[in-house]
Amino acid sequence: MKKLLVVLQFVLIVLFVAGGVIAIPKIRINKEKAEEIEKMKETKVVLYEGPKTLRDATEEDLKNTAENNRDFSLLHCTDTKVFVNGQESYVYDTNVNHTRTWVSSYYPPQARTPVTYFDFEGVVTLTVTVPDIDIKTVKVSPLSYGIEADVDTDAHTVTFTVDKPDNYTVQFNDSPERALHIFAFPLETEEEKAVANDPATIYIGPGEWDMDNISLSSGQTLYIAGGAVVHGTINSSFCSNMTVCGHGILDGSKIEGWKGTTAYVPLKFDHCSGVTLKDIIVLNPNAWVVQQYDSKDGILDGLKIISSRPNGDGISMQSCQNYEVKNIFVRSWDDSLVVKNYDQSTDNLYFHDIQIWTDLAQSMEVGFETNKGKKPDSAITNVTFENITVLNNFHKPVISVHNADDALVKDIFFKNITVEHEEIGSGDCNLPFLIDIAVVQNSQWSSTAERGTIENVVLENVNFLSGSENVSRIKGFDPDHGIKNVTFKNVNILGTDVKSAEDGNIKVDEETVSGVTFE
Length: 519
Hints:
The chain is mostly beta strands.
């Protein structure tokens, strides 16, 4: 009997301990949930109502067709709803382009996609309702946040939580169609509020405004408030210390596409110094979006860009020095981030903490034009791309350094690059390379008779997560105009650590290239 009691006591102790062990994760989960609830109580959210003058999008407006066949206007989205901690956030319907082929008429088919934005501090739960989509899978980017969304297939809803102001993209059923872009700003600081309220500031409040072109002089600040939609462009030339800021929208949908003749660039600053462009959203540009030409000592911070028309480059840095480009979102129908020489030499450009979606052309490009102005001793030096997430790249190389003139291109760094998905070679792509480093002569882009060289290119901590198997290229023009010192350090392509050219399917031209190393 005593033995039986001892056995029973032992079993009870084991069960009690096991129960305690089992309960620990539950207690931890409950504690984490409680902490999240407390944070949500302390959360501050600022929502912006869109202009009441914007028309509701109809089924006709969502047709994938050229802009001359339907209304190209920025509209109020009606088939996607977004709730932030239970409050509805206004959703816009803007134009995007899924065509992977150049259209010589400058009228490629245009699709549409939803965009919303708000400010917050703390923790927010986002609920997205898409009645017209049968949700099978959902992806919330950046993937590095590890966001797991709850899907209710019957209600056509997706719910997830974020605790960091950033840019988030929701894709349904592994398709780029009707992907939702969410721009979650941090709350405006007291300093930013003071700028908005400064009598010297050019202030544009909520509502819809036709401004044509706003030209800034030295020392001026333009503030576009959240809830504002400004149809027009902003520029300055030969001025210093200008600022454009605010959480509103600069829209180009009322301007006809440039068709290779007249480009109305939304943010154009030529021969300037001390330019600060911060936070505003740019949609439906006439051509390329941000042009900094022959300028220096500037900061581009927090811009949100979506382009869909031909030559719709995102950030175009042309003959600039000492620029920091950070915290930006770019979805473009041409090169997303591009560095060129059109006049003087380029030096010390730092792109970092940026998200890219490239529908056509290249994500991060140096070149092709490296001496458009045919200047002596032209050079592009000290250009860094760091902490870049490429959500999608559907056409040409993700990473490219192209010297199509006689310049020296030196010290180009790609660090901490994550490519979530690529489909290099789709459409009419004539550069089917994942990574392309080349000295070339190009009938379309070369300006000088002579060729130049490329030196010291570093790819460090570069990871391609998904996509198609693709070749990369390192190739000079000839032995005297070649490439030297290219380093691959901790590069992984679709699960393969690249410790040799063969590992990465990288074609290295031995006659024109030297000093390629793998670590």
